[in-house]
Amino acid sequence: MNSSDFSRFLSGRSSVREFSETPLNQAEIDFIISCAGTAPSAGNLEAWDVVVVTDAELRLDLAESAFGQQHVSKAPALFVVCANYVRSMSQYGERGILYAVQDATIACTYMMLAAHTQNISTCWTGAFEEDEVRQVLGLPPHVRPLAILAAGHGHATAVRAGRMNIGEHVHSDGW
Ligand SMILES: Cc1cc2nc3c(=O)[nH]c(=O)nc-3n(C[C@H](O)[C@H](O)[C@H](O)COP(=O)(O)O)c2cc1C
């Protein structure tokens, strides 16, 4: 893939919140997760885990945990990406908390982009009550749910979300 293909690939993705009922098949789910397995991580400790949720009742419960966001129940698959603090803190102590968050965020990004290669739409969902998500999924205390990546077959809206001028992010040789 050359740089223009890559730019086109990235700008061809946008968040989708309307999904058909067509489920993701196991090969699609496995592909998405295996791509996350190639992500970099602090000390190569891979301090992330994912709970794949396809059960309709659990999706409804998670949508409630996400303040009623409907796309969470409508998406046929949810990838609940968690930071695994113990895995990273065992080597890095307190700093491991930050590393685990970064590892999980990168893993989720890889999943989102892996889905995009398969024409599977996603919506990264960060607004949810963590304790409710913990309870619904029976998460152990040493992991923190960071994102619910809602995934399925759907269509992007014609109007893409705008972006800041890229220059506003950039500071050269100091702030
Ligand atoms: C950390 C994070 C949290 C987000 N949380 C939500 C959310 O709770 N609900 C939602 O509908 N979209 C959520 N989004 C998606 C953003 O709204 C979306 O990425 C942004 O508006 C840019 O649009 P685009 O993804 O179509 O380019 C989240 C995205 C990120 C990265």
- The parts where pLDDT drops under 50 for at least 5 residues are none
Q: How would you name the CATH homologous superfamily?
A: NADH Oxidase
Question: How much helicity do the residues have?
Answer: 40-55%
Mean pLDDT: 96
Bound molecules: flavin mononucleotide
Mind telling me which CATH architecture this is?
3-Layer(aba) Sandwich
Helical segment count: 7
Sequence of strands across the biggest β-sheet: 1-2-4-3
Order of helices and strands: HHEHHEHHEHE
Task: Report the C-alpha radius of gyration, rounded.
Answer: 17 Å
CATH class: Alpha Beta
**Could you tell me the number of beta strands?**
4
In total, the number of domains comes to: 1
- SS content category: alpha+beta
Write the topology of this structure:
Elements: H1 3-11, H2 26-36, E1 48-53, H3 56-65, H4 70-74, E2 77-84, H5 85-92, H6 95-117, E3 121-125, H7 130-137, E4 143-152
Antiparallel strand pairs: 1-2, 2-4, 3-4
Flavin mononucleotide (FMN) binds next to β3.
How would you describe this protein?
Helices cover 42% and strands 17% of the residues. It has 7 helices and 4 strands; from the N terminus they run ααβααβααβαβ. It has 175 residues and is an alpha+beta fold. It has one domain (16-152): NADH Oxidase (3-Layer(aba) Sandwich), CATH 3.40.109.10. Helix 2 crosses helix 6 (95-117), helix 3 (56-65) packs antiparallel against helix 7 and helix 5 packs across helix 6 (95-117). Strands 1-2-4-3 form a 4-stranded antiparallel beta sheet, sandwiched between helices. Bound molecules: flavin mononucleotide (FMN). Flavin mononucleotide (FMN) is lined by residues 14-15, 17, 69, 123-127, 161.
